[in-house]
Amino acid sequence: MLEQALEKLNIAELNPMQQAALAAASQQDVVVLAPTGSGKTLGFLLPLLARLQPGMPGIQALVLVPARELALQIEQVFRQMGTGFGIKCFYGGHATRTEKSSLENPPAVVVGTPGRLAFHLREQNITGASVHTLVLDEFDKSLEFGFEPDMRYILDQLPNVQRRLLTSATAMVKIPGFTGLRNPAIVDFLQDIPSAPDLEIKVVPVSDANKENTVFRLLCKILNNPTLVFCNQRDAVEALSTFLTQKRLAHGVFHGGLEQPDRERALLKFRNGTYPLLLSTDLAARGLDIPEIENVVHYELATAETFLHRNGRTARMHAKGTVYVLLAPGEKPDYLPAGLPTETLPVRPALPPPSPWETLYISAGKKDKVSKGDIVGFLLQKGNLQKEELSLILVQDQVAYVAVSRAKADNLILTLQNEKLKNKKVRIERAR
Fold first, then answer.
1. How far is CA 291 from CA 182, 314, 395, in A?
2. Is pLDDT of 285 > 70?
3. What range does the domain containing 52 cover?
4. 225-236, pLDDT tens digit by residue?
5. Helices (H), 291-386
């Protein structure tokens, strides 16, 4: 089954960390210490899959994660593996009623945030008696987010766990006793963090009092490539967003103060190229699978550890990346290497050209029995699109989003307004 799963994922060979985690988990509890972007998700999903038993009733494996987006990402990877085992994803920000009804036939695997999973256990929507495998993913981040009370409660409700897997992107002096890990094997690949041979770090001096103007000039120079700008707080993200909107620089915003649908749309539009720029807090520095980011910009300075995690968003999987650090006069963090090159900025910056992609909203989803294949056929046949004018598709319960050629977007909206998708008349418009 493991070979079939890897084939579905188009993975020819596991990396050394994943091989070590899979081997160790067959014998004992495991702690996987590895940097962001190293493939920890497969590092625990494959051992988890090896332990699942066909025909066994109830939930067999529970995966706790600190963020909704990470939970959705894990669910997506597991589904792509085509295992035949069911999986459900639970997190805050939407109705618990829908989640409760989906538990009438419990899946083999449940992944979710501690707060929401603790709720379902307290309401007895979930029973932990059948769970034999527990994963604590990005455990250090869960502690940082204050989830320890919920995690303690959840683990107390799991009397029959036989194997525990814990992942972390930072070294831990001591693993808390409430995790229940027994003589775990330590799979430590954290030494890989500092070594980024394809990562170039550049300094961007802030010569005037207007840091916003400095980053605008920088973005106008580099924004032909996907770029992630990190701020320390959501207020800084929103303030920078307001400034860039006034400058007519297209971008997305991502932070914990947004409603879940808004966060999902922001990530979708960034992934599909509708805009190449995303402003974010450190919520996007860990766990999220955002491939092909070529530039990371430190708009505000962070700790040495956070600096590394932010940088881990680029130069992934042997790709190249550039990190830009904005420094005001007198600023020189100890963790920055000496002799870094300085980036020169244009005196009269010109806005980069608009993205060739536009994201469209379609008012039908999984509940309407609509699949990605249905949407592809709909757009190619009734919308007269060519395959190369169609990109990423996201199908949710009630709606769907699809990236199409920006040049064809307006005509496509007009052409399809009175058409039906799966015998349902759908509304199509630009995604907000």
1. 35, 8, 20
2. no
3. 2-192
4. 899 999 999 999
5. 304-311, 372-377
